[in-house]
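User:
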Amino acid sequence: MEARCRFCGTTLSDKMVDLGKTPMANSYVRREKANAGESFFPLCAYVCHECLLVQLEEFNTSEEMFSEYLYRSSFSDSWLKHAKDYTVAMTSRFGITKASQVIEVASNDGYLLQFFSENGIPVLGIEPAANVAKIANDAGIPTEVSFWGVETAQELKQRGIQADLLLGNNVLAHVPDINGFVRAMKIALKPHGVLTMEFPHLMNLVELCQFDTIYHEHYSYLSFGTAERIFAAHGITVFDVEELPTHGGSLRIYGKHQEDTTKAVCDRVARLRAKEVSAGYADLAVYHRFAERAVTLKRDILEFLIRVKREGKSIVGYGAPAKATTLLNYCGVRTDFIDYTVDRSPYKQGCFVPGVQIPIHSPDRIKETKPDYLLILPWNLKHEIIDQMAEIRSWGGQFITLIPEVTIHP
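Assistant: Predicted structure:
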């Protein structure tokens, strides 16, 4: 059956990049199932020639991927700081008070809402993964286990719950029904409320060859122009936008009801729209060139790893993020190159990276084996990790990142 654009319904025929077949990025393999078969699915990003939404085909349902989730936002110190800074900024800019209602979609373990709650501001998290929602509820952050959509938004409205501030961080890419998701935000927002959404900026993915951020749990990859069109189609006007350094370069868009005349559209909206057009993102050519760049970087990565191993040096990884599944499987990197990786999350320790089956240990393992190189797989957190693991320099260890190019950090 032919694939169709999840926003406008156009038949998808233009490929941006084909990364072969990989397992689901977060399908970490338990030790007792290491010898069992794994399921692999095509990982091919298409670009719609009508609306320019970059997207993947859907192979697994959201319920299968997100009903139990191993990612914990609270395990990143820099992300916690980002969340706290956001709460301070929104409270000040939009006058969020104890009389306001803040709702976060895909609220994870309450990492962000806790900072509003500490100031007595009513909060509600909507989180599909029961295991992480329980952590939030146990910490006193009211969180409902539900997938965000029109039905959930209507049910909240019937209960008299609508948002003065409605937010979602790094969730827009995760929804197969992007129209239903945005339509639900329209329903859940008070007449003069504000919504903010943060998501990785497609322009950074392309310019910095971040091919590893493409994985099955990310259904969509958004430019600003495409995001603006999607929200406008459902009655929401983007009135401001910020470019952020998080996740390799993200956008935070600010939305209001189209009927709301109390908020002027900022100049930054027109400037970013023009910036994308000037860089070619309104034309298919820039998307078509990406595939060869990904292949070139893959060859550079393999040439570097082969040289290091021939020199008799040891390499271990730091982190087991979803992006590592794409990187390691696309490049064919297994334990012949990387002895193991480590992760702060106890939920991942004792498991194996999907597909390549590289074992995941506690960070304590690094001090025991004293590797020559530490490969930072969540490269978006490289500064945080280099600070945390500075001790490796005591035995001559060095840090490596592979995106956007192979780089050794002394």
